Amino acid sequence: MSFDVRKILEQLETGTPADTGVPVWQQQSWEDPEGFAAALAVAHVGRGAPLKSRAGQHYDFFHDLVVRHGNTDRVALRSYDRRSGWQVLSYRQLHEQASRRATDWARQGVKAGAKVCLVYSVGSELLISLAAALGLGACISFLPPQGRRFISRRLAELAPDHIAAEPHQVLLLGGFEKKLLNNQGQAAPAFTSHTYKPAEPVGLLFSPLVEPPGMPAPLLAEDAWRGALVDGLLTFGIGPGEHLAAPGYHPLQHLPAFLFTTLLRGATYLHLELPDIEANPALLTEHPVRALGVTPALRDLLLRTRTQLKNVAHWFRNPEEPIDWQSWRAWVKQCGLSTVPSSNVLVDPSAGGAVLVSPRRVRDVHTEAPPAPGRRWALHDVNMSGQEAPGDLGVFTLLPDKERPPAYLVLTRSYGLYHYGGPRTARREGRVYPAVEVAEAVQELAFVRGAAVVPAPTGGVAGHYRYVLLVFTGAQAQQTNVWLQEIRRCLELQLGAEHLPDRTELVPLYPRKVDGQVDEAWCHTQYLTGALHRKSSDPLFQSLTVLRGHLLEKGGPGV
């Protein structure tokens, strides 16, 4: 099929749809992703330096993302540090430092196909190490430095050949310290950038959308390159030197996709932490932002501080976050964004970028989320039988699906429009909550006799759940405040603050156990039916708990 990319871009920029449903060109792109990617690649280059990659044939990420822009003074990364202010990494610096680091790593044994895990916060070190790994043809993984148990469990699952991290993070690498690479970067650049084959994995990513959590999902070179190409030109419409920012967006879900997208376009990734914005909301207005990702947390922060966003050309939200219609409308009005285009964008890191995207258009907050251009997909039966959905509601499944993580997202089709319908099973904003890891971490506390996590529907927005941590304390005298603080400290240290439950219930009973393990199904039923609450205050069960305590605690706590 032939695609008039110039006409497509004009339509997206003006925000005026040719018809009420999904545009014809987008439907055709689902049928011919290869031809669509080839047409976009031609338009992407324009008057700039040529791409070394060829759609469907081979991909040189180091050249296309870094080397092409290495002779310019454009900024690749602009990040804010509370102690030293704005930090800038130019493409020229990125090219030089990544080349030196890649040369150093090659001498330390990093080869094409080696699994290299990047344990960094978002910043210059992450970007330089990412570029160096791509230059050597490594298969990258990314983990933010949060929670010892969180990191160690995933490193054990990944079994990396090498780890890149800052020296002070070595305490998080229990058992893997010998895999740590030296990042001196003093060697003169001397390496040839690697060219990936389309089906070659460029990453093994710990996507929070994958169930069970903690299992690395492959990111193929084909998906990574096409995702960056489509998102840069169409989803976000960013050009050289323009800023893409997404404060508070989940790093494991949106990186490295956002970085690939930004670098391929020669644009700038603008990184800000929510606490820094809360301390100084003006930071968000200091640079013009072509595309701004907005979370409910950022929305509420800007509402409280009454911040005007006159520097934003387009804003987007994740359709998997619960819609608070009133708050979104108040935010749009207060921030002066009533005439600014917006869109819904759902990113799947193992697919290389956005998989659901609504067109950029000036309109009210909505649930419209058609499959992204250039994706081959199908609606499958919600019962997961494998057959196609018989009607206009089904599980959105990327094709081919054999090597991909299981699909989970329900999509509905109505009068030519597609709407986000929620996840098939309980999730937190589309992400899998690591319930087993949370329960295991808490059960190591001295006063805990058993723990389980129960997802409870809110009764509000479809697909929105709250996660309740049940902590069984047996016959001990209650120390509610002390115990709750200890549980919070434990989870923040072992897994990171993002994995704190929505609610913690201390239950003065002993849990039912099967083969020495807490019976999760029993906990779910007992909590959701209110039986645990009734038993906790029933004199008979209180007496039985005291009796069980005398029997079970004879040999020490938890016997």
Oligomer: single chain
Alpha-carbon distance between the two ends:
69 Å
What is the residue-averaged pLDDT? 92
Largest sheet: 8 strands, mixed
Query: Residue share in helices?
Result: 25-40%
Question: What structural class should be given to the helix and strand makeup?
Answer: alpha/beta
Q: Compute the CA-based radius of gyration.
A: 25 Å
Number of strands: 22
The DSSP helix count reads 18
List the helices and strands and how they pair.
Blueprint: H1 5-14, H2 24-31, H3 33-45, H4 61-65, E1 75-81, E2 85-90, H5 91-107, E3 115-119, H6 124-135, E4 139-143, H7 148-158, E5 162-165, E6 201-205, E7 217-220, H8 221-235, E8 243-245, H9 251-254, H10 257-264, E9 268-271, H11 274-279, E10 291-293, H12 296-305, E11 315-317, H13 325-334, E12 342-348, E13 353-357, E14 377-380, E15 393-398, E16 409-414, E17 417-423, H14 435-442, E18 450-457, E19 465-472, H15 480-494, E20 503-507, E21 513-514, E22 517-518, H16 520-528, H17 531-537, H18 539-552
Parallel strand pairs: 1-9, 3-4, 3-5, 8-9, 8-10, 10-11, 11-12, 19-20
Antiparallel strand pairs: 1-2, 6-7, 12-13, 14-15, 15-16, 16-17, 18-19, 21-22
Protein described:
This protein is of the alpha/beta class. The protein has helices at 5-14, 24-31, 33-45, 61-65, 91-107, 124-135, 148-158, 221-235, 251-254, 257-264, 274-279, 296-305, 325-334, 435-442, 480-494, 520-528, 531-537, 539-552; strands spanning 75-81, 85-90, 115-119, 139-143, 162-165, 201-205, 217-220, 243-245, 268-271, 291-293, 315-317, 342-348, 353-357, 377-380, 393-398, 409-414, 417-423, 450-457, 465-472, 503-507, 513-514, 517-518. The strands form 6 sheets. The protein has an 8-stranded mixed sheet with strand order 2-1-9-8-10-11-12-13. Helix 12 links the parallel strand 10 (291-293) and strand 11 (315-317). Helix 3 crosses helix 8 (221-235), helix 8 crosses helix 10 and helix 12 (296-305) packs across helix 13 (325-334). The longest helix is centred in the first third of the chain and has 17 residues, at 91-107. It is globular.
